Amino acid sequence: MKPTPSPAPRTRTTPTDVSKYALIYGGAQKNAGPAGVIFAIIRKDALGKVSRYLPTMLDYRTHIEKESMFNTPPVFSIFVMNETLKWLKGIGGVEEMNRINKRKAATLYAEIDRNSLFTGTAAVEDRSIMNVCFVMAPGHEDLQDEFMAFAKERGMVGIKGHRSVGGFRASLYNACSQEDVDALVACMQDFEKLHK
Q1: Burial level of 58, CB count in 10 A (0-12/13-18/19+)?
Q2: Helix crossing, 178-194 with 93-114: angle to 10°?
Q3: pLDDT tens digits for 108-137?
Q4: Rounded to an integer, what is the distance from CA 90 to the centroid of its chain?
Q5: In Å, how far from its chain's centre is CA 145?
Q6: pTM of the model
Q7: Using CA atoms, how far apart are residues 58 and 80, in angstroms rounded to an integer?
Q8: How many CA atoms lie within 13 A of 142 on its CB side?
């Protein structure tokens, strides 16, 4: 069985033809459930094909035979993920969530590209629809802390950028609504008006 190359790992909500893969392993993280819960989709014909010794815990056959109860499962995390998947199905499934997420990202990227005080950190073709990273535009770097405080006063929390990049990161996970994104955009516009 020749493995199918997989795309680079990234957080996304897009329809995927699972039949093309022998194994799909993913972390729910914050998009489908609490951080720490994972899911695995494996074709039966891929089981038992490993030529080297595998510890019992790492052999998927163990978990299949024990109906995922070989060890104590993280019940709360699984419950939340199940509720999230039911909600996702109820709104139209992965296709609808993908449409919603693309719209949210497009709204925020349009403001970053328009606003004279901000600039994106990723090339347009590499932009994530889940984690939108941006910094103060050249010449306005000294406004970073002021914008962070300004945003916090308006209820924008958790937008501090990654420690290795700095700036800001807006996580547009499935639970983030269009209204949340619109509020951040309005905040950015108000901040720009203060510094024109």
Answers
A1: exposed
A2: 0
A3: 999 999 999 999 999 999 999 999 999 999
A4: 20
A5: 25
A6: 0.82
A7: 24
A8: 2
Going by pLDDT thresholds of 50, 70 and 90, the confidence category of residue 36 is: confident
Q: How far, CA to CA in Å, does 143 sit from each of 131, 136, 137, 153? A: 22, 7, 10, 15
| DSSP secondary structure code for residue 42 in this structure | E
Tokens 């299949």 found at: 64
Answer for the pair 100, 88: CB distance below 8 angstroms, yes or no. Answer: no
Rounded distance between C-alpha atoms, residue 196 and residue 191, angstroms: 9
Residue with tokens 């990723």: 122
Rounded (10°) angle between helices 93-114 and 75-90 = 90
Q: Any idea which residue has 């006063």 for tokens?
A: 153
Enter the tokens of residue 171.
């996580």
What are the phi and psi torsion angles at 37 (to 5°)? -85, 140
The residue assigned the tokens 């499934």 is 93
Kind and range of the H or E element at 4? none
> For residue 148, what are its two tokens?
């962070």
The pLDDT of residue 11: 52
CA–CA separation, 102 and 106 (whole Å): 6
What residue has token string 């990273």? 133
pLDDT computed for residue 12 by the predictor:
60
Burial class (CB in 10 A: 0-12, 13-18, 19+), 50: exposed
Joined together, the tokens standing for residue 167 give 């700036």
